[in-house]
Specification:
- The protein has 396 residues and is of the alpha/beta class.
- The protein has two domains: 9-209 and 332-395, Rossmann fold; 241-315, formyl-coa transferase, domain 3 (2-Layer Sandwich), CATH 3.30.1540.10.
- It has 16 helices and twelve strands.
- The protein has helices at 18-28, 60-65, 79-90, 103-107, 111-117, 142-149, 169-192, 202-209, 211-220, 257-264, 275-280, 282-293, 298-306, 325-330, 371-377, 382-391, and strands at 9-12, 32-37, 69-74, 94-97, 122-127, 197-201, 241-245, 248-252, 312-314, 333-338, 342-347, 394-395.
- The strands form three sheets. Strands 6-5-4-1-2-3-12 form a seven-stranded mixed sheet, with helices on both faces. Strands 7-8-9 form a three-stranded antiparallel sheet. A two-stranded antiparallel sheet has the order 10-11.
- Helix 1 packs across helix 7 (169-192), helix 6 (142-149) crosses helix 8 (202-209) and helix 7 packs across helix 8 (202-209).
- The longest helix is centred in the middle third of the chain and has 24 residues, at 169-192.
Amino acid sequence: MVKALEGIKVLDFSQLLAGPYAAMLLGDMGADIIKIERCHTGDLYRGMTFLNRYLNGVAPTFLAWNRNKRSLAINLKSDAAKKSIYKMVAKSDIVIHNFRPGVMEKLGYGYEDLKAINPGIIYGTNSGFGTEGPYVDRPGQDLLAQGLSGIMTLTGKDGAPPTTIGTGLADHLSAYQLVYGILSALYYRTQTGLGQKVEVNLLKSMLAFENQEITSLLNLKEKVKRPKSGIGLPFMAAPYGVYKCSNGYITIAMNDFSVLVEALGDDSLLKYNDEKILYDKRDEVFWAIENITKENTKEYWLKVMLEKDLWVSEVNNIEEIENDPQVQATNIIQTYRHKTAGEIKTVGPGVKLSITNPEISIAPPDVGEHSVEILKEFGIDQNEIDKMLQDGVITE
């Protein structure tokens, strides 16, 4: 079956998370992703891992973002490499990188350089803070962008320090923004034949994500204050939050408060049944509710509250998420075999298409695993390839 992006060639110069994730999303849809890496050591994420643990020497962090790709290990500073890359650009559709602004230009792989070779090339860049403004030369990284975006002052409780999100949110969001831009540019090219440059950055991606909160603050002219209790968002009134039960936690979102009180079985809570009171006294309301929920199990409260169609759910431990029946029903946890790391469980594509459904067809590659194969496909002469191998311009 023809895949959604079959025939689209992507030269992926990126490393770590944001760029590789964007390229992987395109690869899941069938694009041919050629991961261009440093000789021998490759992507920085090959040598970085969580919990200081590797799978037979392979970093799970690298495996997470690099399926459905082939690896070309090449020294980008070499004249022979530049000659080969230019040939590849002439036959490719998309270039992705997440180097600091100016790096690709110095190497001779900037947008104007590649556009001169292939006017239809779509050139996707992902940086920390963009190419304009006082932060251009700053290092760009997820935690730094989270801090600048203001989201840390919306997370956690009053009196606590600014609180980070428990994953690389800025990286993830910028990957989605980059794919959104690239696919839009790809459609534009089908109409005009022209490629274009697509720029995203971590800070702008975070701010776009926080649009609801920022728009409210900019226009309401109100100050935001984090609650002392577990109210989930600083803009929200009670009961919105995470509540302790006798054997775990549940979340309770926006609800008809009188129906929630009925489920909780304590009419004394009705004294709070006013929108202004539920906000002004949200901490007091939270603790009053939690004093009730902690007296019974999360299973009990889910049954009682769901029977009344209240917005409620259990809180899963991330270590046990694969056992959740809904997670299992969606088949989002998938398995593939990696030749070094063995059988790998991972999160599969998050979108489902009725005809061209994305799939994991290629395990994450070793450094330079496909160097010779890729160069041959682009018409690089075998003698040139042999010389580049001999000179260490490429590795396999």
